[in-house]
Specification:
- By secondary structure, the protein is an all-alpha fold.
- The protein has a domain of 55 residues.
- Helices cover 82% and strands 3% of the residues.
- The protein has 9 helices and 2 strands; from the N terminus they run E-E-H-H-H-H-H-H-H-H-H.
- It has a two-stranded antiparallel sheet.
- Helix 2 crosses helix 3, helix 7 crosses helix 8 and helix 8 packs across helix 9.
- It starts with 6 loop residues before the first strand and ends with a helix.
Amino acid sequence: MKIDENQTTDSDNEIKVCKTESKVLSKNEKERIRYMTDDEFRTRKIDTLKRKYWGNEEIRSKKIYSGIKKYQEDEIYRDNMIQAGIQKYQEDESYRDTLIEYGIHKYQEDEDYRKALIQSGIEKYKDDNEYRENLKQASIQKYEVDAKHKEHVKQASIQKYADDDAHRIKIRQQTSVRRESLQAENKEITAVIRKFKDGS
């Protein structure tokens, strides 16, 4: 125990503790305090740790493994990491572009990833009305401005009409309803025009 001015010794050389007791800080605690208060020390410490991480495969592997394990086992840590990732994605354009590039590359190269992504998109489209409406609106906007996308949609629609009996029946019914509606509308317009001509 460290002796300070609040401590006195008696005749038997025993330490008597007065009102306050001095706390001996461990090396780690002192370093933690210094890290939090000294910017220069913090910068040096970070640089040293980065060099160790990138310069030593074994340290890097251990850190990655412990991070993966913590992510899998600690729900709070996992939620915090997800939120931090979302925030960084929204705020950091370079990070966002890198992730998008990586996703596109992985989608093109990894067939299992591509199939899983398509399947999850189909399920989300079926289950999430807001997602479905947003996707429809985005597709309509893209259809209006992107000739290549417009041609792709037309070809996909033609193919689906040829291959899918239920789709073909649905399209025919919709076309029939539209045709009847237009015919009724035309009759009304014709009647109005006749009345106008007869009234003149």
